[in-house]
Amino acid sequence: MTSKPIFNAVDNAFLTERNLVKPAVNRRRLIASSLSHSEPLSSSESGGSEDPAVDARVYTLIPEFLHSKETLEWLGWTSQKAAEIWARWTTINSVEVWDDVVLEVEFLEHATGHIPYNELEDSAGDWEEHMRDWGVSSELINAIMDAEFSNVRLTESAHHWVRDTMEIRYLSLERIMRDSDSRAENRDTLNTSVVTDTASGTSNVPGHLTLYKAISTDRVRRDREGNIEIDSLVSGTPSDFRGIGGTMLYFAPDLKAAEHYRNYIKRRATTSPALIIRLSLPNAFIEGLPPHIIEFGDFWRQAIHTCRSGRNLKGNLKYLHTLPLIITPIAHSPNIAIARLQDWQQVTISHIFRLEGQQNTAVQYIFQGDDTVGQIEEVCELKVVV
């Protein structure tokens, strides 16, 4: 089965001459980390070749071909599981015919479609056992289970983190491929993926509220002018305060919390630059929504138990779905673990997310609804924190 190389032939010759990519070995190759992070080439890199003996660059190993068994292993499957998934892929050859209906199958969808949903997770040992049984590689298991990020890990399930990591890794390969095609087409060293709308971490603009969100650069979409599309920052469901559907935009006022989330992305996907998006909104806009504060208590416990179980709120809590802005503690536990609780009364203070070394609970701003997100887009400033 023929697969397109990640590096365009013209670009490959250009980069090889400058020692930015190494010759492929066993259908894998080392590339300079500047390429994996879509950084602009320096004057020395865009010039002549360099002496490999004095090369001080950091290199990253990636697969040679986008659709390949090597890519499946690189995403985080064991060699044996990758061979099984690849054999299935070559059989269907990206198209299946069933009752005269042609079904298109995306490679990433096929790769992540082998992550089971029927999981029972309690202790860290349970997580590791499940992932090993699924065929997840030790490298990915170790990245997900890193004890430094256990508080973040326990906000979601093993299924979520395996899928999320594999998706980010694959999207980074697609970005590297787009960069290569762009360089070959333009015949220069410009890189269209470089983020230019950067800012310092903190902001003290009078009359404005500053919020933060960690996200992989490969999940962020931009318009033709290079501006961040706010729709690409919307979270999926089930999540805090939404079980099914809806448009939910989650940000945090604590930069340290966002940095912690960003570091977990870095730990799991080294080729995908992890960003912190800084959202700046006029105080007058926030006050005009207005914000609705929900502290830890019976309302919070009922809402978290219902929504994290994949159901929307009903009865006296249904009105919460209509609020444009909720300020509330971040929940700490995978959806499946909360869903297994007998009722909302089993949700306790331990289900609130805290940063290590901090006594205060981590707070989130939840913006709800298409209209609210559209209004935010009109008045906000989005920057990437450096």
From TrEMBL:
This is 76d881f8-56db-4422-9fe3-8d3a4c5d65cf. It comes from Sclerotinia trifoliorum.
